[in-house]
């Protein structure tokens, strides 16, 4: 795509670029959802955040993923961890970088922790809870458990 330097051409070029990026991001989201559909039951909901959640994922974008689990669920930590690993394994070949293994986008968070009324608004809240909570509010988009995701927002 070639852009001319006048204001009207630059705006038109920028709009065309954004439309193409959004179309590709939407395609990637659908692909992620299809490839991981059988894992949906392992989680309360799964959402993507960051550039993919905003439908602005370009080359080299990260797959910032939020895994929310039910705290009262009998599912073991090992089973949930296995489901998270399987989730990322199934996405091999997509042009998305996996999250850092020790970051907020690779560790499941309990639904009850996100909703804890006594923790909201505290300046000393754990980054492990604050990070996913703020991402869900700012730019996350559900790929599994859309109704559950909306209830968390």
Q: How many helices does DSSP assign? A: 6
- The N- to C-terminal Cα distance equals 38 Å
The biggest beta sheet is recorded as: 4 strands, mixed
Total beta strands: 4
Nearest-angstrom radius of gyration?
17 Å
What class would the helix/strand composition place it in? alpha+beta
If strands are numbered along the chain, what order do they take across the biggest sheet?
3-2-1-4
Question: Which ranges are low-confidence, i.e. pLDDT below 50, for 5 or more consecutive residues?
Answer: none
Shape estimate: globular
Portion in helices: 40-55%
**Mean pLDDT over the full residue set:** 86
Report the order of strands and helices.
HEHEHEHHEH
Summary, kept brief:
The protein is of the alpha+beta class and 153 residues long.
Describe the structure.
With 153 residues, this protein is of the alpha+beta class. The chain has a 4-stranded mixed beta sheet, with helices on both faces. The protein is globular, with a radius of gyration of 17 Å.
Main attributes of the structure:
153 residues, alpha+beta, four-stranded mixed beta sheet, 4 strands, 46% helix, globular
């Amino acid at each position: 795509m070639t852009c001319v330097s006048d204001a009207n051409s630059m705006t038109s070029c920028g709009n065309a670029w954004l439309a193409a990026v959004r179309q590709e991001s939407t395609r990637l989201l659908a692909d992620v959802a299809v490839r991981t559909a059988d894992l949906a039951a392992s989680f309360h909901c799964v959402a993507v955040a960051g550039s993919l959640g905003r439908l602005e994922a370009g080359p080299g974008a990260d797959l910032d993923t939020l895994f929310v689990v039910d705290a009262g669920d009998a599912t073991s930590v090992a089973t949930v961890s296995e489901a998270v690993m399987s989730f990322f394994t199934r996405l091999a070949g997509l042009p998305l970088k996996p999250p850092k293994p020790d970051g907020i986008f690779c560790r499941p968070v309990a639904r009850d922790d996100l909703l804890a009324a006594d923790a909201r608004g505290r300046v000393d809240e754990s980054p492990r809870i604050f990070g996913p909570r703020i991402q869900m509010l700012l730019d996350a988009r559900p790929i599994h458990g859309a109704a559950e995701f909306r209830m968390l927002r």
